[in-house]
Specification:
The structure is a homodimer of 248-residue chains. In chain A, helix 6 crosses helix 9 and helix 7 packs across helix 8. Chain A has a four-stranded antiparallel beta sheet. Chain A is built from nine helices and eleven strands. Chain A is an alpha+beta fold and 248 residues long. Chain A has two domains: 150 residues, Jelly Rolls, CATH 2.60.120; 82 residues, Winged helix-like DNA-binding domain superfamily/Winged helix DNA-binding domain (Arc Repressor Mutant, subunit A, Orthogonal Bundle). The structure holds a DNA duplex (30 and 30 nucleotides).
Chain lengths: 248, 248
DNA sequence: CGAGATGTTGAGACATGTCAAAGCCAGTGG
DNA sequence: CCACTGGCTTTGACATGTCTCAACATCTCG
């Protein structure tokens, strides 16, 4: 608990000692807290939150085809979203860190269009979507926030569009991950990639072997230091340069 | 005008002679008309619509980096959205038919993250986004519709994710286009691909030569008949089978 | 009709995928 | 503590789909 505080303080600098404290341990904090809601609005938002988990690694948060009823904010841990086609081949759509929201792509068809699987011990906040939409009716800022979050997901989807080389993809992946870590107050250069190489490869549309080889090459070139699933970015600028076409 | 009526009737069967007629020539009709708004709500929605165009081919509707202020519904013609990186290489994100909405990906950064370029003589409806958001505050159905449309765009973004073969991509592209044509009341098997081969290739992350070759192969196999930019799907089911992994 | 854009076709190159084998670590049970 | 198992990961050798380059064909439009 107390060990987690520093990171949280970075997410929400004003969080310490203000009236929104009740939300402080929930990663959705950075979605709603900085938005200047008044106390009663926040109370209403708080009412529709349901803490779920902890899940172990490799459990489903929701499944492809399930009726869509809620979105989830990752509170701790990591989640991947992925599709499995009839042949059983998996396609990873994304990795989701604490503070990030999953499930918004289920609104359209009123069913989840993908699986969400924990990679790690994970806890989440569940937001009933109908309730949230109703509340957004009263809170313009919440509606706007939802629009922005959805818009962000649209953008993210087009990130790996384009025929990029394995080097570009992997460099962009590392930098993106590091940036997202940093935004949560964690180190911008050291991180643990909790997902398997296979998952990374799958996400980047590469073969696992290619990921292995490129990581080794990056290491040989002094761009990174890899030890199992721990990575240190030794030359973030160079990586950013390599991946710039993907990151744009 | 009257020549366009049959297609519109297909979009909105009740359109003829009802009180929503004023909106009948606008492609956004199928977004709002079937939703059961009352007359005054529709009037308000109508107020914030601004008809723009006609544009000729190859004109910008909006540009990368421009301040985001509105979304556009294609009324007639076709629009492509695309990114251009610093090296001048283009990346086509999508093609947009009448009735489809562009610009939603600009909400997040309050700037358009891509260019929107007409492929054809095109007219559009411009919806001020702030005004629309405000109205959505009063009209739950409108808010829901916006959520659904954004969610749909998120889904569409992940369509070409995955390492698909050239055959899969092209088959899926043809079927998807035909389906979208059909949904607008046009032929489900004959269509004009107004965009260039280069644009198609670019969209599908293939080389233009590959598109050429695969189209020829499909023709040799009797799946399609191509004549310049006109295409007839001779065996839609087979195409759908080939492209099923992409279409899912 | 000519010129420029657009599309097609062929030959060869190359990045990445595939397959197979071996290495490495974590956990299990003796 | 060790041997064993099973999952990942790495590495090497080879196969192949798609790209690149270049030539040519075809259409469009002044």
């Amino acid at each position: 608990m107390t060990a987690r505080k520093p990171a949280l303080r970075a997410i929400n600098p004003e969080g310490e000692g203000n009236e929104f404290e009740f939300c402080g341990t929930c990663a959705f904090a950075n979605v709603c807290l900085p938005e200047g809601y008044d106390k009663t609005s926040l109370a209403e938002l708080h009412c529709l939150i349901e803490h779920v988990g902890p899940y172990g690694a490799n459990e489903h948060v929701f499944r492809l085809g399930e009726r869509f009823g809620a979105v989830y904010a990752v509170r701790a841990g990591m989640v991947k979203t992925c599709l499995v086609d009839e042949a059983g081949r998996e396609q990873v759509l994304g990795f989701h860190l604490p503070g990030e929201l999953i499930g918004l792509n289920g609104v359209y068809a009123a069913r989840y269009p993908c699986d969400a699987i924990t990679l790690d011990t994970t806890t989440l906040c569940r937001f009933s979507f109908p309730a949230m939409a109703t509340l957004a009716q009263k809170l313009p800022r919440l509606q706007e926030q939802l629009f922005r979050l959805m818009s962000k997901d649209i953008l993210r989807g087009s990130m790996l569009a384009g025929d990029f080389s394995a080097d570009e993809r992997l460099a962009a992946f590392l930098v993106d991950m590091a940036d997202r870590h940093a935004r949560r107050g964690l180190s911008a250069v050291r991180m643990v990639l909790v997902m398997s190489r296979t998952d990374i490869a799958n996400y980047l549309r590469l073969a696992a072997e290619t990921v292995s080889r490129v990581l080794r090459k990056f290491q040989d070139e002094g761009l990174i230091a890899v030890d199992r699933r721990e990575v240190e970015l030794r030359d973030p600028d160079a990586l950013r340069r390599i991946g710039r076409a993907v990151l744009r």
